[in-house]
């Protein structure tokens, strides 16, 4: 018994040692395995985080690149006759207007501002402007008052007229403040133009149905005109302040006289005359500064110049002076210089200048704006023609006007019998030629 016990004790010790060795070995390997697994997991997490970080950075970079591509780029344009590019608006410009004193150019934009530019700065390097804000809306049209101390606007969302009046600050600078009163909403269709008579007696608004409204300055409708043209394409007030005219689906331009009594009281609107001669609907028309000439452009691919200095009350019709050909692409506009010597036509984003003596094309400007030209006007002195169609206003020298003025003075010189008149004309011709040469050589 004692011998068996003595034999079992060493065997038990050996077996215990072996079990302990196995447990330690297995535990060590298990620990190493767990450590390896944790390290592998940590490396995987780091790799995943790195990938996520790179993916996020890549997405951010792609987004920035997309935003840069989507941001509208400044339209590049250059031309020998380009006098200035007026840049201040951050949105597309929809309307322009020169003041009657020739000192200012107004522009309104989708950026909820109206800018008043000084015309004397056109040929300077810097073009200063005064900003007027349109609260909670933006203006579609802007028109100066006859005294150039206020302007009216048509609001896109409010669909009404808002008046801005000039005011001087304590430091002597000028600002424009909106009047609290606004006109009532009377049009049932989209308004295509507004105007204020040079006499200051009435305001006109026209919509693209068949309606033209005549308002007094207090915002009261004095008369409503039905043009009977199915649709109105354009309507405006003549520079003399006597007439309102419209064109549209029919192949003519209809003109009405807005009549007032000697005391200034409104009487009636009567039909004055029509411009008849086109064979298709008329897109646009324009008056000269004295309202004695009109120009029109039609879907029939012609533009026409008219003599409207007629006795319409005796049923005398306007005279057709000139017909020119032009391939019309909508949208299309026409402008007549105040002195009636030059016609400007825009189709799409291109513009062309014609003289009114023989209808000859004298200047062409292609791709003037990044979008279709939205307004086209001459300044009151016929020195410049301005366009807009994006965020920029382009100011061009009216070289056809210079050449036409020189031709007219040379004709007068041949007929002049008075020596003083001859000397004066010779001096004026010399100055006009010098100015033309300066313009033509300034960009070379």
TrEMBL record:
GO terms for cellular component: endoplasmic reticulum. One of its GO terms (biological process) is endoplasmic reticulum unfolded protein response. PANTHER family: TRANSDUCIN BETA-LIKE PROTEIN 2. This is TBL2 protein. The gene is Tbl2.
